[in-house]
Amino acid sequence: MEKKESFKEFARSHPELVKHIKDGSMSWQKYYEIYDIYGSEMSAWSEYLKEEESTASEEKTESKTDVVSSITDKLSSINMDSVQEHIKTAQKALGLVSELTNKGTAVAASKGPLTSRPINKFFED
């Protein structure tokens, strides 16, 4: 693999390098020169990769605690009486629907089987 292609693979495997490019402290040319001299040896890349890893781990722990705290806040703000009233209302609605569907089948079953009318008879005969 050619040096340029191996640098591209290295850059893809370390996306945190882009932050230094965006803030203007580094350029792809400078990164390539470091890679050309030292290769993928981590001691040469420690100042660019190490601080990113520590901030990334800090951000992950902060985001996890934020998520947990937001979930607990949401759960504590739920009014359980209101939830219970909604459940009762839904049960009543389901009971009504069930009752209506059972009445329809009971009425059809109580009439008995339907007999067909002869073809040659009309309503007035």
Q: How many distinct domains?
A: 2
SS-based class:
mainly alpha
Q: What share of residues are in beta strands?
A: under 5%
Helix and strand element order: HHHHH
Give the total of beta strands: 0
Note the topology.
Blueprint: H1 3-13, H2 17-22, H3 28-38, H4 42-76, H5 80-110
Keywords summarizing the entry:
125 residues, mainly alpha
Description:
The structure is a single chain. The chain has two domains: 1-77, no CATH class; 79-111. Helix content is 75%, strand content 0%. The chain is elongated and about 105 Å long. The protein is mainly alpha-helical and 125 residues long. The N and C termini lie far apart (98 Å).
How would you summarize this macromolecular structure in one to three sentences?
With 125 residues, the chain is mainly α. The protein folds into 2 domains: 1-77, no CATH class; 79-111.
